[in-house]
């Protein structure tokens, strides 16, 4: 299995997975169809399927155009809100593309219908791959917008966190540098955070993507996978994993707002979302 990493705009990724024997290709989170089709033509592969992680615009905005350009294309995902969806997937379902197996893992938190995709190939020494969308990023995760911190904890710790440590993690966004700067704030004495941050700064200087990481690495420096570790508990002042996660998410949002002040409307939305402002309902 070959994975092509295709950076889009400033910080998004789409991916093309190629079955090298049958030359079938599967795209993950399509943003720019024409660019994707240029690559499939150059690679001489046949694109049959789109796997969508969740319904957000930046992960689905190319679906309709691609479906128009490629009649018969299957657009799969777990959420009815996904544009041009042709097949709704459920948790635990397995798909097959030649020698490539895909296990669909529902990972609610960021959105209720967020699906992550775990891939491996028959008779292939390569490690498995995880396409984690916004459920898990390098050194971070997407903010839980539609579900509770408890659900997000289940997704991160019980579903994704238990995959084989050698699994390669391909996430939806290039937020590695700011994620690691936040991780350093959470765990200033964690050498793995420091080492990954130095590495990510070098990649940023050279304009090279930081994906994929591995799950084993993530367990060493990603605070959102380390909610039972003492330094992370101490940073949040909480002990129960879901509460640690809740505080981490809120602090991560606050950190982002301080890092790069956003447009007033977006800032207000985030502030409400994350309880950075008090609302009448909270009183
Ligand atoms: Zn999203």
TrEMBL record:
GO terms for biological process: glutathione metabolic process; methylglyoxal catabolic process to D-lactate via S-lactoyl-glutathione. Keywords: Hydrolase, Metal-binding, Zinc. One of its GO terms (molecular function) is metal ion binding. The keyword Hydrolase applies. InterPro entries: Clx_II_MBL (IPR035680), HAGH_C (IPR032282), Hydroxyacylglutathione_Hdrlase (IPR017782), Metallo-B-lactamas (IPR001279), RibonucZ/Hydroxyglut_hydro (IPR036866). Pathway: Secondary metabolite metabolism; methylglyoxal degradation; (R)-lactate from methylglyoxal: step 2/2. Residues 11-173 form the Metallo-beta-lactamase domain. The keyword Transferase does not apply. SMART domains: Lactamase_B. CDD domains: hydroxyacylglutathione_hydrolase_MBL-fold. Its EC number is 3.1.2.6. Pfam families: HAGH_C, Lactamase_B. It catalyses: (R)-S-lactoylglutathione + H2O = (R)-lactate + glutathione + H(+); an S-(2-hydroxyacyl)glutathione + H2O = a 2-hydroxy carboxylate + glutathione + H(+). Its cofactor is Zn(2+). Belongs to the metallo-beta-lactamase superfamily. Glyoxalase II family. NCBIfam families: GSH_gloB (TIGR03413). Thiolesterase that catalyzes the hydrolysis of S-D-lactoyl-glutathione to form glutathione and D-lactic acid. This is Hydroxyacylglutathione hydrolase, mitochondrial. It comes from Cricetulus griseus (Chinese hamster). The gene is Haghl.
